[in-house]
Write the structure tokens for this entry.
Amino acid sequence: MFRKLYDWVMGLARSRHAPRSLAIVSFAESSFFPIPPDVMLAPMVLANRDKAFLYAGICTIASVLGGLLGYAIGVFLEPVGLFILKVFGHPEGREEFQRWFDQWGLGVILIKGLTPIPYKLVTITAGFARFDLFTFVWASVLTRGARFFAVAAILKYLGPAMLAEFERRLNLYSILLLALLIGGFLALKVFM
């Protein structure tokens, strides 16, 4: 089962539509979509390491533009924003994130933008908080760019060895990745 899914993702990563799909996923993830762009970025870089930084740039630009949509949802479509927070396990998230913005301001964007924590939570609540838009944009460019370019660089330079190891033990690593994802979502619900 994992081999078929893996082969499908790698095939998509090599397709001529891959950059467009990467941009769409990156944009949507920053405002409402649950799947992070890393799921596409990693196999795309492994499939074509010469374009690693181009792909990271696509992720960054699309993610920041999607973040602006998330910000706009927080400002203009509060009920939609509250619904999205609720879907992602933060029904009281507005008050919690508002306190974070009041206490740490820019730090919220700088820390959360680098982590795999769903960025849509930051973008929507930044809109709720009416956080300074200019600061929001440059901090998003900085943090999202750092994250995506770091992933691309690691995979570009260490990818072939990592890919060979991953393919040898595909089932084991797939199960571990699934366990980490589930554990991460559970931790987010408990600690946030």
